[in-house]
Amino acid sequence: MKNTILKVESISKRFSNVLAVDNISFAVNRGEIFAFLGPNGAGKTTTLRILLDIIKADDGKIEWNLGGNSHHMPQPNLIGYLPEERGLYLDIPILKSLVYLASIRGMDKTEAKKSALEWLERLGLADRAKEKLQVLSKGNQQKIQFIASILHKPIFAILDEPFSGLDPLNQELFIEFIKEINSKGTTILLSAHQMHLVEKVANRVFLINKGRELYNGNLLDIYKTLGNKKIIELHYKSGLNENSLKNFKGAENIDVVDQSIVKLTFEQNTDIKSVLSELATTDGDFDISTHKPDLHDIFLYLVKNYKI
Ligand code: ATP
After folding, report:
1. What distance in angstroms lies between residue 36's CA and the mean position of ligand 1's atoms?
2. What lines the ligand 1 site, CB under 6 Å?
3. Does CATH place domain 4-88+137-224 in 1.10.290.10?
4. C-alpha 288 to ligand 1 mean position (Å)
5. Residue nearest to atom 30 of ligand 1 (CA)
6. In 3-state terms, what secondary structure has residue 205?
7. Measured in angstroms, how far is the CA atom of residue 126 from the centroid of ligand 1?
8. Residue 213: closest CA among 33, 37, 40
9. Which of 49, 150, 167, 230 has minimal CB crowding within 10 Å?
């Protein structure tokens, strides 16, 4: 437990007829960025709320080790939490609200003000410091929520859907901020459904679907073990005829992404020439591209193979 900040053992949570979290165990180690990853309704937020004692699990055990009493909920000054829903005061000036929140989490007010202004500057919101949160756009409100969750320099930050409401440029900016905060000593547990973003920032991932674990481990290992495939993508220029691909030889998996894109998964040692000659006789007008599986492909593969 020395290097483990949080240990979760076999937690479950049921809401009437939905088993939102089904016997989940994992541990977060000091210094890492641990990502909870899964589609809408997978059980991510429920798990995070259980960790923070906002709701109680039906079963299971949670152990914290952030200094002090290691078995109970840590002090608020040690933790940062970015909730999925907006949780700040809408009708109080932004800077005032940020300074207040950091100060009740143990930060000196002068330092909090200086640091809040720096963050507002970096996020392009310095000129809005005296405005009320309610007048900001959804994405800008998310930026303020983010500042509020990390301003007091917590040892451990739990970020629920940090990329929500942000445009692609700001998503990239947040990735850099998360890395920076982590490099300065904050261990991070984040939840998200955007696999392409999580791939850029996490050391370890917990893939979750319908409340259950699909994979828990190192991000690099997942590529070694499950990413050892070839993916061929067909981009249809006009309507796709799904039947034409039904009996495609050698494909482990055929994923119709939408009406213009189909992904075919093959074993690593598949002879691509024979695949291409079969594609040449397949109905439809499409372009072909190949790539290694990304996290999204691996997730789909796991969902399909575990038949949850
Ligand atoms: P999202 O990415 O959409 O936020 P999530 O992975 O965070 O999804 P949860 O919010 O944890 O998923 O929800 C998991 C399941 O539990 C869903 O089926 C949801 O409808 C259900 N659920 C969550 N909270 C409640 C509640 N308070 N009462 C009833 N059902 C709930």
Report:
1. 14
2. 15, 18, 20, 38, 40-46, 84, 193
3. no
4. 38
5. 15
6. strand
7. 35
8. 37
9. 167
Burial of 168 (0-12, 13-18, 19+ CB in 10 A): exposed
Full strand arrangement of the beta sheet holding 4-15: 18-29, 4-15, 59-64
Taking the centre of ligand 1 as the mean of its atom positions, its distance from the CA of residue 152, in whole angstroms, is 29
The pLDDT tens digits along the chain (308 residues) read 668 999 999 999 999 989 999 999 999 999 999 999 988 889 999 999 999 999 999 999 999 988 766 566 778 788 999 998 777 777 789 999 999 999 999 899 999 999 999 999 999 999 999 999 888 899 999 999 999 999 999 999 999 999 999 999 999 999 999 999 999 999 999 999 888 899 999 999 999 999 999 999 998 888 887 778 888 999 998 877 777 787 777 888 888 888 888 888 888 888 888 888 888 888 888 999 988 888 888 888 787 765 43
CA distance 33 to 297: 21
Mutate which of 14, 37, 46, 198 for ligand 1? The one with the most ligand atoms within 8 Å of its CB, which is 46
**Residue 150 corresponds to which tokens in the numbers above?**
């990390």
Domain ranges (residues) in the chain = 4-88+137-224, 229-291
